[in-house]
Amino acid sequence: MNSLQNRLLLGVTSVFAVGFLLAAIAIYWFSQATMYAEFDEALFATAQALANLTEETEQGIEFELSEGFEEFSRKKTPSYYQFWLDGKALTRSKQLKNGDLECDHGTLESPKCRAVTLPDGRRGRQVCMTYHPAIDDWTEDDDEWKNDYTELEFGTGNDELAPGHPESGVPPEYMTAAIAPSESGVMTLTWERPRANVTIAVARATSEIDRRLSSLLWILPSVGAAITVLSSIVLIAVVRNGLKPVETIASAITDIDEHSLEARVPTGRVPVEISPIVRRLNDLLARLEHAFHRERGFSSNLAHELRTPLAGLRATLEVHRTQDHDEARCERTVNTCLDICGQSEILVENLLSLARVDASTFASKREEVQIHALFKECWQPYAGRAGDRNLRTSFDVPEISARTDRELLRVILQNILSNAVSHSDDGGHIHATADINDAELSISVSNTGNLLGARQAELGFDPLWRGDHGRSETGEHFGLGLTIVKRFTEALGGRVELNVDASFRITITFPV
Amino acid sequence: MKILVIEDYAPIRNAVVDGLTAVGYSVDESADGAQGKWLAQSGDYDVIVLDLMLPKIDGLSILRSLREQGDEAHILILTAKDTVPERVEGLDLGADDYLAKPFVFDELLARVRALIRRKYGGKSPVIRVADLEVDTKARRVTRAGNSIAMTAKEFALLEYMAHRSGDIVSRSEIWEHVYSFEADNHSNVVDVYISYLRKKIDKEGMAKLIHTRRGQGYVLGEAS
After folding, report:
1. In angstroms, how far is the first alpha carbon of chain A from the final one?
2. Nearest CB partner across the interface for A312, out of B12, B33, B104
3. Is residue A398 classed exposed, middle or buried when 0-12, 13-18 and 19+ CB atoms within 10 A define those classes?
4. Which of A190, A194, A491, B11 would give a disulfide with A173, using CB separation of 3.0 to 4.6 Å?
5. Which residues does chain B have with pLDDT short of 70?
């Protein structure tokens, strides 16, 4: 799935659906637990009420179950109760007939509540607890032992008062309830007379709760599904609206082609999440524009450099053909054509050299080269011109040898020295140095009279770029010198640095 | 006809100047934009052959400047830059024609002739004045069907007067349009060449076509 919109929709809708499902389960479970808790609470209250209506008498357990418990006597959908005394069934509700409830033995503090199937088959819940019925004060005897409890104070260490001790007078079945010493050493004993353990179970149908829970079982999924569908519809609109900036950007990009690279994607009102992408895109467009501009410039410059000599050749020969052919004129025409051919040859050779160095199959040939001798050899053709322009020279090139490609280095030095002589001011100064450091040879040539800024100097590495936009002196300068120096130096594994101010200094450094 | 060639590449400039001079045009030349602009502004040239890539001031700047000053000289751009946008830019700035390098010299010549005709309102390369025919393309003159031999300078003078037939052409105008900038300014030369033309065109028994307007100049045409 490649659509961002579909991914968002599916993801969010799934989360919504799962969320609603979990919420529905939680709501159902919570509702069920609450309802059952309330039901059990009511059931427990009923059990307590019934328990309060029982008494322990001298004759046994008596029940005063008369009014107020219509639920146990109705014939349709009755509730049930049953009593046990010490585990033996004691009495039961009328509608229970011969059936029995489960005796679970909970306590007053912690009654046992659970789901049950009622004798008539209905689903219900039952609460069960064991308690001591209230004792009916049936004795007319003030014998204190007959009471629920009695307290005696006695001195410490007097175990004669333990239940069962003949002298304590306390019947053995009485339990010591508490022994509480006081500060004076007087002990207070409290006995409890043994009590009857009556267990009561009350069971009631959960029809109403079950009905409500059933309703919840279809209401919750229905509502959840409806909300999921509705939220999906809203989400579609929200996502579409949210993705509009992406569409706007895509539309802006579509309008940009190689003829309109100056255009930029608008950055105003772009969401912060997308703005880094837009910025990077605009940066890329700027680089593309610059590259296309350089490419167009190169094509235009190449057209000029190739066509101009051809035009000169053609015009010279055509005009010559229409005129009288005296020997001097013929000589001039031939010389002009040969000069043009020579210039074109240099241009073609330079372009071919660049192509060869750029080819993946190029491999330099290394040999021991005497740097001083090579430098002197390269300077020789330019010495005359330097003299004509009254240029001063200072060359600090020691007698060092280096292992490198002689021919590449020759071309590099010739171009550097040619540029220095051509672009120095009249009467200016050309300075050259060379040294070896850390297995790297550095050769530096500087000339005064520089007219280029740092940015323009860097552009000089672009093929056919010239500071003179009119491209005068066609055939003498092509704008390839610095390009050749850079590419050839890189072919030697080196680098070129420029320092530009009032002087122009170029330094080539490469491993030897 | 007076032509200015502004081109910095010497082989092209020399060839064009030589070729145009050989066919009788008066040609001035310049190797850079600054001098070229000065010459164009100070002279009354029939055609300016203008390169675009020039040192000091580029060709388009010169073109723009001349048109802004209202200069009506016919300008032919000669350049190695010949993409459509560059042609459109040059023509929109006011150039009258555009020729890409390398070019055939005969084509350059034909375009110069066309621009000259355009300047003087003619459509045909053959100018007729009464029974005199001046074929500017073939560089041939006939009268009443008879061919008349002429030197290049005589033809250039006759061509100029033929383009301006019926108009009074002053000596200074003849001088500006027929002779080069470097030539010495002697009005006597004009008179001498006019007399040469009269001898060849207005022969005995033929109606005179070259008339003198005392104090004003000369007129080529039938007697009014």
Report:
1. 56
2. B12
3. exposed
4. A194
5. 180-187, 224
